[in-house]
Amino acid sequence: MAAVLPSHIHDHLHTIFLSTVGFAVVHHLAAPELVRFVLGKKAWDALSSRDRVGWQSRLTSLTHALLILPLTARCLHIPALAADRAFGWDPRAGTLLGVASGYFLWDSIVSLVHFEGVGFVVHGLACLIIYVNAFRPFLAYYGARFLLWELSTPFLNVHWYRDRMLDKTGKTGTLLQLVNGLTLIGTFAGARLVYGSIMSLQFYQTLFEVRDGVSVVILLGYAIGNTVLNGLNVVWFTKMIAALRKRFSSPAPNPKDTKARTGTTAPTNGAARPKGTKRD
Length: 280
Prior knowledge:
The protein is an all-alpha fold. The protein contains 10 helices and no strands.
């Protein structure tokens, strides 16, 4: 049944293309200029290429989150999607999925080129495959709901930026960082672990209901993909907790020892992405 459903992707290829190019422009052109302005030319020039990519990638993921969340909000109460959670469709969902697909295409490329771990590559590719396949149409209803996971991304990146700036001045472990860390953990747990788990149960139920009309390969692919993404959320959440506890149970570092750490990904830099923690 699903195999013969008309595909809507051709109506949104331009959105996917513009999204991919747009996020590449933010990463390669806009982000370096903004970070250079904030840190200062001398500090930016002192960063390694890997550290620069860290700043650029987080600014790009922040841009995606700020763009995708309003698009997601307008797709949460579309009658056509609610009436048929498996095969329902609406052009507004196509725009949302197009922007998300373009972003995760960019994210997958960056994760492969600037390899930081298998988890990032798996996350990017899994999201790309899931959102592109939603144009069948298939499970577009859940596409909008799982993109609400991005609610935690602004807090994740702002916390990461603040950590680097405070570490540079030797003001790590402050009350402001603690508040930011707790806010990040709260939004991450609420959006990804609690709400995400609830929606995942409904997601599995929908897959079960349409099992007779969909290829077993597709069913297993979606079920396994969703399980893996939820598993990564749990792993990253535990890393955030561990990093936050370590930061506030350790003495503040000497500013002289942190002069080049404005772009590192060391675990002691708090809940905003210790090494192995999601970019977006």
